[in-house]
Fold these 4 entries.
Entry 1:
Amino acid sequence: MSRVAGTCFFGYVGGLIAIDVGVRHTRINEEMIYGTLCAYLFLGLAFAYLFSFVFGVQPEAFHGLERIAGYTELEMGTFIYFSFVTLTTLEFGDITPASSSVGALVYMEAILGQIYLTVLVARLVGLYIAQSVEPS
């Protein structure tokens, strides 16, 4: 149950930050850029809890975890690692999806991570630079 709550919490807070940064502010400042980066980290944590939940329900949904000692009771750190490796599309290959449902989540996280960085963060940084060059 705590894994579902963690997924909901980090997803909700990350979404609130992203909406706050993307909609409510007209001037771009450093705090907005930091906020977008925090929302990116929250996205990774939300997926980590989601992967942890899936593992709790279906342990055979991942390849590579069986090499870890005591893999039936994995720590959250393993899923945080997997989530951020997926979010940044590094994909080392040490842990891979073994089921189509986890594969779909992995694809979704990888695509969201790249779109988030290339579209939102790059746009905010570009607007921030443009604002700082404009005469006041």
Entry 2:
Amino acid sequence: MKTLPKNYLFLNELSFFSLKIRKHVLVILVLCTCSLNAQIVNYVNNSGFEDLKHCNSFPNNNRVKFWSGIDTSSFLYQVRNECLNNVPGFSAIYQKPKSGKGFVTGTFLCGGCNSVTNRSYFRNVLKNPLSIGKTYCVKFYVNVKNSSPLGIDGIGAFFGDNTLDTIKYPDIKITYLIPQIKNNTGNIIVDTLNWVEISGTFVASGVEKYMVIGNFLSDANTGTIQIQNPTQQWCDLNLDDVSCVELNLPAFAGRDTAVFAGDSVFLGRTTDVGIDEACVWHQMTSPTSSITLDTIAGFWVKPVVTSTYVVRQEICGMVKLDTVTIYMDVVGIEKLKLLSEELKIYPVPAQDFIQLKISNINLLKEFNLISIYNTFGALMREEEVVFENKTLILKTNDLENGVYFLNLTLRQAQGEKSSKLGNVSRRFVISR
């Protein structure tokens, strides 16, 4: 962990964000956060090629869940995965996965190969069709298989509908599909060790249910650089960490909550490719400084004091922030339950005063706010109190005859805002 400079851009963004977020209505905020936690983030299934249908040596076809060629005859194989017990060095491969435990390899250019099986196209069944008019950020990572004689620039991603199922020769050069995301012409990938990011954005038409990654250029239009073996003209690429995320995805840190000492709470979203690397977490140490915690979509924390966390999310250049505060609940469920059972209000009915009585004064010492509401939920009175004895007298001569509700609350201040961490409610009647 390192301390961020006070003038770091993140703090400026946070200040601007804080001014905006105060304008939101609490009810809307709660509804939105519930929805955010459940929505799809990365639309690509098995985006890191981690989950396999089987761990047998053969067959290789369609071994990776949710991935195949454009049809079932296309050749797709898992290069490295823990369940296969293959390690760097297996089949002339020494690359490690970009993340996780697996990745795949395919042929993106094959000069001199026969006309039937000269290219690989990796098709993914998306979790849901994309939404019309929305902009998506797409990323995936490649490097060159170390035995490949060529580096190439012909790499792209096409999003399509069921018409892909009508393609009869899926392993030949498919130059009639125009990829929405493509590597820049002349940006020839020659790195055989480090993973190179291919990324871009596009606006969905609303019919996209498949993603296909491959080389959609003719051999003549594919830029190449000879790396080794000048008599050979082919290129195999390794592929890993594929993501398709809505560009305007709201940042999500979680909901403000209270925990007991020693408890843990999960912040943010479920981790996934494409969103993990987009999120950087900070813990505020003062209004003008913070410490960096982690780069991940979500993680567990075990605070020892009330703490505020901020997630900075950047998706294809779009930055968003969200905050969450975890309060230390010094009351506890059992204590609230006991207080609810022991707290009594006299007389019944009351006239000009009521008495709050309890046998164990220690149960009340941490409570410092009393609120009185009528039957319509309107706040009639709110005042700070200090419990020093087993009985507290409150005047009620300003209340008309009727039924009222008294809320006894533990309130903890946090900067400009307060949080009600414990609440006990009692009903009383005024009758004169």
Entry 3:
Amino acid sequence: MSSNPLALAARISRHLSDIEKVVNHCENIYQKATQNENQIYFEAIALNLHGFYMGSERIFEDIARTLDKNMPSGYDWHHLLLQQMSLDLQPIRPPIIQEKTYQWLNEYRRFRHVVRHGYKIHLKINKVEVLAEALRDCFTAVQQDLNNFIQFLHQLAND
């Protein structure tokens, strides 16, 4: 993986664009779900919520490998990675995400496990609704935090 900060910034930007498409798609499905209350819509929303978190996590994995040179491992690596992104690792880098963003993403991380392991029987529609309703705000926070980090990467490249 390239350690070029500009290459990392470009990859983050591309992933953010892809994640925004997932968020938009999820919002469209949610509008239909609120009109129809069909279980299939909520399963589709759950899959897109999973996609949102996994897209964010891919960015964090890239940062951990490229810049931090430290990718967590073990049974709880997903949680450790998210925590790592909220840490100030000066002189390497500032925190990637703010505390509020971390708290939001942690909810999506937990939900990812239900979807990832195919526990549709455990899928709670009210939890899907809560996460779907918060999705745009969470994405906006992720986007803002990562855009700030992209600015840091550009400064790093210019130094």
Entry 4:
Amino acid sequence: MEQVPHNFLGIPAEFSNYDSSKCVILPIPFDGTSTFMKGADQGPAALIRASQQVEFYDIESAREPYRVGIHTAAPVDEKTGVAVNREAERRVSKYLGDSKFVLALGGEHSVSLGPVRAHAARYKNLSILQLDAHADLREQYHDDPLNHACIMARCKEFIPTIVQVGIRSMDATEAQANRADHVFLAEQLNQDSNWIERAVSLLTDEVYVTIDLDVFDPSLMPSTGTPEPGGMGWYEVLRLLKRVSERKRIVGADIVELCPGETQGPDFIAAKLAYKLLSYATKP
């Protein structure tokens, strides 16, 4: 089968047609509010390029998940945070109406708002699983309530249940902004062998997964705008995602904050993570 350039995995055309695909990849290359290292707007394209080196066959599931069909949509091409999220919400709502599973690719973390709104309109008891180094619960940052550091504060306005995993950076106001039993600090994970079961039990039956790549330790994932030491490992994250898919229904997701650097290794890791997440979410 001849691979097709410029789409996720380089999937052959027969498996990337919109009408017959179960999944849609939506690039949202926006980086308007990052305050440390810029470049997250280049993340979706870098991830898609690297994905064309990912093997179609998934060892863990003993199948080729791409065969459900994965369509790569045109990027959301807007210039302001408000416009980006408005268009992303509109596009995702359409895809959900066509019974697609949507994986959005950022871009900075603020781009999650539009996709989350679209899913919340369709799934009335939606919860969010946030994998992240940062709490992102500030009411505003640099006088901007749509800053990437505020994304969970905005989601919390209409999603009651948010479970945060891998957190290791927040300010004093954020420490008081969420229920302590819904926050799984990175430093505590190795001290609690049952943390995955506890985290999953807090989620509703329908789950939106948002993954800021800085949840990983910088030794594995240095290509993020705001890296933090002491992050999670590859298999830790996969065990959590797999367990969520076993006990709950993952109805949508995003992967954000890839800030490509000189080496392409982290781009490939992000692409592999995207394929693993699709494998869990679309399992038979």
